[in-house]
Amino acid sequence: MPGFEAVEAKMCEAGLAEPVRATFRHYWEQLASGSTGLVAEADIEPATDLPVLDGLRREDRRDPSHDVLDALVVIKLNGGLGTSMGMTQAKSLLAAKAGLSFLEITARQVLALRHAWGARLPLLLMNSFRTRTDCLAVLESFPELTSDVPVDFLQNKVPKLRADDLAPVAWPADPALEWCPPGHGDLYTALVASGTLEQLLSRGYRWAFVSNSDNLGAVPDPALLGWIATREVPFVMEVARRTEADRKGGHLARRRADGRLVLREVAQCADSELDAFQDVDRHRYFNTNSIWVDLHVLEHVLETHDGVLGLPMIRNVKTVDPADTSSPAVIQLETAMGAALGVFEGAEAVEVGRDRFVPVKTSGDLL
User: What is the CATH number of domain 5-357?
Assistant: First the structure.
């Protein structure tokens, strides 16, 4: 099997920063050593008795201090195209309500909270190369959103690997298909590689609230922020009760080895254990993909791990051309943003209502 040199050379040629290359090497070496990234049912147990957001609101009706509110930044994952809905642009540009797009509504939400809180509250987009130009053009119509940090940063791309020898795949017919996004777990690497984390910290921001751009129910909650700040919780995942409609989504569990909360995605589940994975009575909570992260702690953890957060690996086997099943088999290495739950010591999950989880994945969802 070839070594990582060819992979790194391809990444260097594409101009990918050292933190991106180091992180990808971490997962490539796991893959080369035979790791599958699977999480066995025997190694976890159901998560129970989580804090509930409504309960936190009742316990402390006071809003957090202005200093706490002023140290929050809102980040929206905005790299996805609405291809499943017949679009060729960013899904956040789709008209969602009253002629306004997801992005325009999000901008209004942030501006309303700024006014109510008297806080800086920047809005940052994690864009992809395919969504950046159009979305930044939309935000130009909101000059009042200007803040002391850039309005966006770019998610990274990583090579697809040949399934037979883990070398970077070559596909001259369409070289763009030689690359894939590394999953939303790339958030942390992209924050560092773009210099955004350093900028946020230097300007006094401590907490980030991160969510999907198509989830308009995901807005910063002052009660939850106050609870996080008071208890100095380094990482919080918002979870909701699973229903039969949520059987395929990632679920929360507790690792038997150390008692830490973890996230298990369906790609990390063996086929023989799918029934247990999809048992919504056993595994009661799913990840809404809305998280809160202490940026000070994130910086510290990255420094102590040589810039590699070490999220669990997700291994996806596909064909280099998704539309051509006869094209070479490739492995796409991904990570999940919420999997940082198992990395941050003292991380917590909080149960929220479905009003904070209204994603739009299909045209039917939108209607």
Answer: 3.90.550.10
